[in-house]
Design brief:
Helix content: 25-40%
Largest sheet: 4 strands, antiparallel
Strand order of the largest sheet: 1-2-3-4
Order of helices and strands: HHEEEEHEE
Number of helices: 3
Number of domains: 1
Radius of gyration: 18 Å
Length: 85
């Protein structure tokens, strides 16, 4: 009986926490992908809205481009879209 209570309480806590995240919070972190030729790249979306792209030894971000690269979420579209600025 106690085990069921703990499992139920944990499930409710996880649901509440996942519902409270904004679309931006769900995107923050590292996203990896592989193209059709087998090359892998990572996209790092940071909480301060900066972005960094890693492709092998190549790093593309604001400082390497001599400026500022940011991302934002547009929740007015369905499905929600995000863009690099």
């Amino acid at each position: 009986m106690r085990f069921r209570f703990v499992v139920s309480l944990t499930a409710v806590a996880l649901i509440v926490c996942s519902c409270s995240k904004t679309p931006e919070d769900k995107l923050i972190g590292e996203w990896k992908g592989t193209d059709s030729s087998g090359k892998t790249a990572s996209l790092l979306l940071n909480r301060d809205r900066s972005v960094r792209v890693l492709m092998g030894d190549l790093v593309v971000d604001g400082p390497t481009l001599g400026g500022k690269v940011e991302w934002r979420v547009d929740a007015t579209h369905e499905p929600i879209s995000w863009t690099l600025l």
